[in-house]
Design a protein that fits this description.
Length: 330
């Protein structure tokens, strides 16, 4: 299935990959991932011997395209990454490896698949993103990686939000919190801040400050604890506070939202798309304060800053902001 998805995505035929998002289709995979034990045998019987260097190449490319995605948007380099994965990752999955090597390999491929899902989501291809997420969930479940299972649920919460499905948003966010039980603190922080956003999206502002506080507490423990997952190294304090600012703004809590946004402003300039997201959140906070002039100025700055980005999702958010509508999807 992954080979078919990557081959199709690499061809860059938008109509072919613009398959419909199917609400509820994720339910069975979600339940299995949360309650079923890992696969008993994940060793590979193939002829090509998978080496450490092979997996490092996969991991390095995933990190590289993650950075490019943040700088240029999900519509820019997704096809190139898909071509690489179809040529390299499929050979590894069909290769010879021990159970120990297989655990790292499956985790690395899951991270690459989730990067592709994120790019597809940013390019407003929810059906494609959903199919990538399904494959990532199966890989994470096979190796019993609760952190990555939580990550897939977080992806699904964002997808559900883009489709306006409030109940599914909260279901996936709460599933991420459940999956993160027993994982490292940074994963717990990521799940908790997603729950805060889900509560805000569902019109439950009284739940948002509590979830934000839980996320901050878990993040504080992460900074003083053990080494964190490589796939979550981008989730720093600036990202945490950026997501907190969004949740607080949607909840109508202007003052704490503005405070969170100030901290998020220290985010690296290389994350160009995220800086546009900060401007969008700032514009919403200005609207909450009744400062329509600042709202207009920030909206214009967001539109200007996004011109070089290939992000259909971001363009739609700015159009929504320009028309005076409130913040909507994640």
């Amino acid at each position: 299935m992954l080979s078919k998805l990557w081959e199709l995505d690499a061809m860059r035929r938008r109509i072919a990959v613009k398959s419909a998002f199917i609400p509820g289709v994720f339910g069975s995979a979600s339940r299995e991932a949360l309650v079923m034990p890992p696969d008993r045998n994940i060793a590979g019987p193939g002829s090509y011997e998978v080496r450490v260097a092979d997996m490092e190449l996969l991991e390095d490319h995933t990190a590289l395209y993650g950075r490019l995605d943040a700088q240029h948007g999900g519509g820019k380099f997704r096809g190139v990454f898909a071509s690489f994965l179809n040529a390299h990752a499929i050979q590894l999955l069909n290769g010879a490896f021990s159970a120990r090597t297989g655990k790292r390999l499956y985790g690395g491929v899951a991270d690459a698949v989730l990067a592709m899902a994120s790019m597809a989501y940013d390019d407003q291809l929810p059906g494609l993103a959903q199919r990538y997420d399904l494959q990532a969930m199966r890989l994470a479940q096979a190796i019993g990686d609760r952190g990555r299972i939580a990550r897939v649920h977080i992806h699904q919460a964002r997808l559900a939000a883009s489709q306006g499905d409030r109940k599914d948003v909260l279901t996936h966010a709460r599933s991420a919190v459940l999956a993160s039980d027993g994982t490292r603190p940074l994963v717990k922080a990521y799940a908790a801040i997603t729950e805060a956003r889900a509560w805000a999206f569902n019109g439950r502002p009284e739940q948002v400050p509590k979830a934000v506080a839980q996320a901050r507490e878990a993040f504080s423990r992460a900074r003083h604890g053990s080494q964190q997952p490589l796939w979550l190294t981008w989730f720093d304090q600036y990202e945490l506070e950026a997501q907190a600012a969004w949740a607080l703004a949607v909840a109508g809590l202007a003052d704490p939202g503005t405070q969170a946004l100030r901290t998020a402003g220290g985010m690296s300039s290389a994350r160009a798309r995220d800086h546009v997201e900060l401007l969008i959140t700032a514009a919403e906070l200005a609207r909450l304060r009744g400062d329509l002039l600042e709202h207009s100025e920030l909206t214009a700055r967001a539109a200007d800053a996004s011109r070089h980005l290939m992000s259909k999702r971001l363009t739609a958010r700015i159009d929504r902001l320009s028309s005076g509508q409130q913040l909507h999807e994640f």
